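Table S2 (text version). Query chain:
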Amino acid sequence: MPPRDDGYVYANGRIRALEETFIGSRMWQMMLSAHDLDELVRLLSDTWYGDFLADSEHRVGDAVLSALEATERELVDLAEDEQLVSGLLHRRDVRNARYLWKSELIREESSEPPVERPGLLAVSILREAVSDPDAREGLPAHFRIALESLLAIAAPGVREIEKVMDSLAAEVERMELPRFGTALDAYVRTRIELSNFRTAARCRISGMARAEVEKMLQAGGAHSAEEIGEACSAGTLADLLSETDGASGAARALREVLEGASFLPYERESERLLLELLEDASTYRVFGPEPLGAMILRRELEGRHLSLLAAGKAAGMDQERIMQRIPRG
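Corresponding structure-token output:
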């Protein structure tokens, strides 16, 4: 049952104000049409990101990180439920655990693996947990179980590690976010669904057997691993995905992928659908924790798209090529 809404009256009023800080479609179109990175930065300076750009000497990547940190501070200040905070910030801890545990277990990295700023778990704890049972006991249960399953493998390879970490990432979202409302539940289920079909398409292209495909898929999407495995084997993945609510664009892009096209349009259509779900959750749900959670997820997605856009402009990519990846404008 979703949490009570009555503790979120002030929080949701604040969220209504923060809605105005998201970049609108007209500005996105102008930024996509920018001649180069300098023009993009000038346009972005006229948005909510302007102060963050000034503080970061106009480095878009640094400004995006600072903006997300500011939004997360709002989350911590406004959230009435600690599980909402942990459900969102633990997602970043999963990503850091993936980087660190892969490096520690395979030991092929010649340098320190890149990590993001911590969510709720210190980077040092995640690293020490691989060799220190006491540090391992300090991990949340689902993190500890995932690590112990990796340590039980004599010599885990990249595929084994990625499978366990994919399961952990899905479990964190599946266990901690849906309880806050139907829109966040739809977001999590759709995210898992789209990820599963991307995985299955890669397996189909590489000629992997159905049984192996099904082992790589995560529970929680609209279709079961068995259904997706059967469609993968039969060559009907795009048809099956088209049955998922709102996924017609992603299904068309997936069909093109299976005919030899790039995965980029599929990624774009997937994120377009997820963005629509988050906009619904943050804009049309009036009270409760759901708009707060959706706001954080929207800010993450906006920051990701800004970083992709800045990288594309810095590399001299034209607008058409950039728009193959970014569902904006």
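Notes on Table S2: The mean pLDDT is 89. Residues 82-106 form the longest helix (25 residues).
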